[in-house]
Amino acid sequence: MRIRVALATAALVLFPLAVSAQQPAVAEGLAAVGPGKFAGVVEAKVTLVVDSIDKASRSLVLKNSRGEQMKMVAGDEVKNFDQIKVGDQVVASYTQELMMTVKKGGGALRERIDSSQQASAAPGQKPAAYAAKEVAFIADVQKVDLKNQTVTLRGAVKTVTLKVKDPEQLKQISKGDQVEGVYAEAIAVAVVPARAKTNK
């Protein structure tokens, strides 16, 4: 199942490049990094090999280390498609980070500020792309569940429930408090040339 998720992630990222809008995976668990300060990080990397190419249909068959294959079509968003060769590696890296600080008593307006950036390879180079988004926010603490070690936050746009790994730190958070934080997500994809074979 994990490899299928990795393959799907690579497909989403490369054809075309896209950043997930789903609830953060870091919701799986935040660790206390200081009094009233919490952080969570998720990092993933997948490497696939180009097994075959159909230039007429702009499709690729990618293969993982277990030999499992997936076919995908490169849309017009994928620049420099003609630079891809059989044997090249498609390397996708994905990172999520969430940092937040508890503000006792609250009182500030809930807010959300989004920013993003993108980049792609120059003409003639192997296809590569990078996308990142960052969300700065202030959210209200709606509920603290000590039994399940979760805190429910209501932001300016949506409400999320996060797992907190440190129960003692969780006890310091109360309904009516606020959290101020930054959520960041980045995806990078690169096609790496196949290693040249050497004659012994």
Question: What would a concise description of this structure say?
Answer:
The protein is mostly beta strands.
Features:
mainly beta; DUF5666 domain-containing protein; signal; 200 residues; 10 strands; disordered N terminus
List low-pLDDT spans.
Answer: 1-24
Query: SSE order, as H and E?
Result: HEEEEEEEEEHE
Q: In percent, how much strand structure appears in the residues?
A: over 45%
Q: N-to-C terminal Cα separation, in Å?
A: 40 Å
- Return Rg in Å: 21 Å
**Outline, from the CA principal axes?**
elongated
Total number of β-strand segments? Answer: 10
Number of helices: 2
Largest sheet: 10 strands, antiparallel
Mean pLDDT: 79
Total count of domains? 1
User: Which secondary-structure class do the elements indicate?
Assistant: mainly beta
What is the helix fraction of residues, given as a range? Answer: under 10%
Describe the 3D structure:
It comes from Candidatus Accumulibacter affinis. The chain is mainly beta. It has one domain. It contains two helices and ten strands; from the N terminus they run H-E-E-E-E-E-E-E-E-E-H-E. The protein has helices at residues 2-14, 167-170; strands at residues 31-34, 37-54, 59-63, 69-73, 89-103, 111-120, 128-145, 150-154, 159-163, 178-192. The protein is elongated and about 60 Å long. Mean pLDDT is 79; it is low at 1-24.
